Amino acid sequence: MPRSKSLIIREARHADIPAIRRVVQKAYGEGIGYTRDQLRGQLNHFPPGHLVAELDGQVVGYCASIIVTEQEALSRHTWSEITGNAFGSTHDADGDFLYGYEVAVDPDFRGRRIAERLYAARRKLCVDLGLDGIVFGGRMPGYARRARKLGGHEAYCAAVLAGQIRDPVMNFQLRQGFEFLGVLPKYLKSDAESGGAATHMLWRNPQARRDVARAHSAADRGPSTVRVATVQYLQRAIGSFDEFADIVRYFVDTVADYKSDFVVFPEYFSLQLLSVENEPLAPRDAILKLAEYNDRLETLFRELALRYNVNIIAGSHPALQPDGRLLNLAHVFLRDGSVFEQPKIHPTPAERYWWQVEGGDYVGAIQTDCGTIGVLVCYDSEFPELTRHLVDQGADILFVPYSTEERNGHLRVRYCAHARAVENQIYVVTSGNTGNLPRVHNMDIHYAQSAIITPCDFPFGRDGVAADTTPNVEMIAFADLDLAALATARAHGTVQNLKDRRHDLYAVQWRGRSAH
After folding, report:
1. 1 within domain boundaries
2. How confident is the prediction for the chain on average, in pLDDT?
3. 72, 81, 102, 267: which is the annotated catalytic residue?
4. What is the sign of the dihedral through the CA atoms of 213, 214, 216 and 221?
5. In terms of Cα–Cα distance, which of 426, 346, 424 is closest to 381?
6. Is 378 a catalytic residue?
């Protein structure tokens, strides 16, 4: 007897992202869908609101929802405005309505009531959260072919409501108990079948807790505090790779004794390995020589992350690519054994001139056991759109390994780190080099004052600094960062930079490839 197929609705996971992309693209056609970065943001900003339908282990449907305020839900809006340009970054935990902005089903599996199950799961979530209802902008796939005959969108919707014509999506939604509020013009330009507009639909929750005021306080369950450490690293001559490994191991061992969740090292801090060669090299030859250490460094840091139970942002290191390009790569070694890379997007003029380093083409948030992080190498922190792209993906902590020669360069990184923390209401951790390497071109002198930086508001450190270091002294700085405080500040802070963005006027649209 053939076994029956198992269909379940469950919360989407990051491992589902490739499958979700396939489902959405099949549902809407080639070239239409979400980037990996957008899906990563959706799942990070409100995990319970993003569901998949799984049939015998295969993802065949996707449902996306966020919480928004009554004003946002019931007033005129566009799809980009309400969803934060598809990242779900407009989610407001203290809102009133569940806003549905996607239901997609693999066309090969239609006819099995998968969309109906996803709608039911969304209603259950709304009821469980005690929200006032569900709102969305619905498609009108039958509009384009009838537009000339019927006239505008209002006339089309009136004909559907009167039963004179049938629209597969609108009729389905009406059967699901939604009421028609009106037309949202210019809702989604790319939806040609709907003429760029949408139906404004509402489902009222009969069990809404209208007599109970939802709390305006930070989460009080589960661990919300993350301990981070930044190493201000002294550049000095060494005699072997083993000596370098012993120095690094000392720092990792020390931060592990303090039960740190993260430790970050500076940009290019492994350049002291060139002192092992004990001979002057031309700049390009020197950087290529250093790139030969990549495999040994990866083995070292992965072993340290696993052994000491610490997530390590191992600074950055030059890496020669198969196509001959030389990149400055930041490496992240998680304590579960995972390894991630983040290329520097903007090499400095000195990097380009002395070493012919080229820029990378992706910026991706990284999921860890202590929340979502991002890494930007030195100069990249001075370009605000990169941090915004990471925050759209859900990053709460930004690590900035840097290497600067003198105080002006250091201050450019430091001031921009403060700006990024304020603009995005995130934590920023910087780590710089100090000391000297007289025989290494472009790395002969250093200036640093590494820091752990916070937004500037009441829940955070004075002057927006959780921990600081003494300039040009090798040391470690520690701080405990409360992720719940970020959520509180974003929702109810003195200023609410993320919430107050004008999605109707501007957006960061990434044209490079997606990470991971």
Report:
1. no
2. 92
3. 267
4. positive
5. 346
6. yes
CATH number for 45: 3.40.630.30
Tens digits of residue pLDDT in 492-505: 999 999 999 999 89
DSSP 41-98: HHHHH-GGGEEEEEETTEEEEEEEEEEE-HHHHHS---HHHHHTTTT-TT--TT-SEE
Residue in 378, 382, 456, 474 annotated catalytic: 378
Q: CA 199 from chain center: how many Å?
A: 30
Read off the pLDDT of each residue in 258-281 and give the average, rounded to a whole number: 89
| Residues 258, 280: Cα–Cα separation, whole Å | 40
Is 15 a member of any domain?
yes
Q: What is the CATH number of the domain that holds 423?
A: 3.60.110.10
Same domain? 169 vs 301 = no
Claim to verify: residue 450 and residue 411 sit in the same structural domain: yes
Query: For this structure, is 124 an active site residue?
Result: no
Q: What is the pLDDT, as a whole number, of residue 475?
A: 97
pLDDT tens profile 282-333 = 889 989 999 999 999 999 999 999 999 899 999 999 999 999 999 999 999 9
| Total domains in the fold of the chain | 2
Q: What are the C-alpha distances in Å from 101 to residues 146, 298, 515?
A: 25, 41, 24
SS (H, E, C) 183-241: EECCCCCCCHHHCCCEEEEEEECCCCCCCCCCCCCCCCCCCCEEEEEEEEEEECCCCCH
Residue-number span of the structural domain to which 394 is assigned: 225-492
Decide if 392 contacts 513 (C-beta within 8 A). Answer: no
Say how many residues make up the chain: 516
Catalytic residue among 63, 344, 382, 474: 344
What digits encode the pLDDT tens for the residues 91-115? 999 999 999 999 999 999 988 889 9
For the chain, how big is the Rg over CA atoms in Å?
26
- Write the CA distances from 208 to 214, 247, 317, integer angstroms: 11, 59, 54
Of 170, 203, 200, 202, nearest to 188 by C-alpha is 200
Backbone angles phi, psi at 208, to 5 degrees: -60, 140
Say what the pTM is. 0.85
HSE value, Cβ hemisphere, 13 Å, CA-based, for 346: 12
Q: Residue 484 domain-assigned? A: yes
Strands (E), 334-389: 339-343, 366-368, 371-375
Burial 18-49 (b: 16+ CB within 10 A, else e): ebbbbbbbbbbeeeebbbbbbbbbbbbbbeeb
Is 149 tagged catalytic?
A: no
Local structure of 168: helix, strand or coil: helix
